[in-house]
Amino acid sequence: MAADKLSTRHLLGIKDINREDIELIFETADNFKDVINRPIKRVPSLRDITIANIFFENSTRTKLSFELAEKRLSADVINFAASSSSVSKGETLIDTVNNILAMKVDMVVMRHPYAGAGQFLSRHIEAQIVNAGDGAHEHPTQALLDAFSIREKLGDVAGKKVVIVGDILHSRVAISNILCLQKLGAEVMVCGPATLIPKHMASLGVRIEHNLIKALNWCDVANMLRIQLERQDIKYFPSLREYAMMYGLDKQLLNSLDKEIVIMHPGPINRGVEITSDVADSNQSIILDQVENGVAVRMAVLYLLASQRD
């Protein structure tokens, strides 16, 4: 039984919410998914709320998804690209946000290159904070939409076996997914080169596998992560070609399994590296469902947080 309100005032990470929170977000997202599939896709739920999207890192998919979710809820939206702002002239994070809050902003959706930026901000300003990704730390709404998509496809998350393949070391998506899936009762495995799997993974209660074929034969769902070259300061494997040979998923490998598995990807896809086009576009892939579900889940998060306002 889901709770009737969230246990937290912000969404900073999956570690800060409980299973009841997740179930409430999913039930609310079910309703909003009906909304975004009807001819008139807008509801007046956040008509008096102003939301600032502050992105200190480049983002296309997440930023667009949040912006669409906000507009579907009739919120007033301010978009702030920090890379082209006063931040590049030396302005601090608090100064930047306080200037935006002076415009009477109620909620801040923030992506930042440093882990913990959302927590830091939540202690210094009154507005509610939604973490849209902080460094290699967490990306809670991506984990929620991924788990929501598994639930939609397979009926439930509990008892399912999910393998996360690829660059676990630099991935905020991986950490948030592990925490979310475990809270919902799934078994989780990570798979990739030893150099891209952090030492602390075993302490999180996940299985570790370095052989992709074994991992795929074990799982019900494979979430294929991209190699985050922009976060890598040293070489973790000889070449992208060798990585693709060892850990890339193509149709021949998919067809060789003795069962059908669900294929996911948080995007953007490096086609031909972690996944080939014929797999990404196959009927086992729910990648486009993830994109659609992202809007509904983010609508649910924003709506539930806003409903806690005085």
Describe the structure.
It is a single chain. With 310 residues, the protein is an alpha/beta fold. The chain has two domains: 141 residues, Rossmann fold (3-Layer(aba) Sandwich); 148 residues, Rossmann fold (3-Layer(aba) Sandwich), CATH 3.40.50. It contains eleven helices and nine strands. The mean pLDDT is 91.
Quick rundown:
The protein has 310 residues and is an alpha/beta fold. It has eleven helices and nine strands.
Provide the gyration radius in Å.
19 Å
Low-confidence stretches: none
Distance from N terminus to C terminus (CA atoms, Å) equals 25 Å
Overall outline = globular
Number of helices: 11
Helix content: 25-40%
How many structural domains does the protein architecture include?
2
Average pLDDT, rounded to a whole number, is 91
Q: What percentage of the residues does DSSP assign to strands (E)?
A: 5-15%
Helix and strand run: HEHEHEHEHEHEEHEHHEHH
CATH structural class of the largest domain = Alpha Beta
Main sheet? 5 strands, parallel
Number of strands: 9
Q: Give the strand order of the largest sheet, numbering strands 1, 2, ... along the chain.
A: 7-6-5-8-9
- Do you know the CATH architecture of the largest domain? 3-Layer(aba) Sandwich
Q: Strand pairing plus helix content: what structural class?
A: alpha/beta
CATH topology of the largest domain: Rossmann fold
CATH superfamily of the largest domain: Aspartate/ornithine carbamoyltransferase
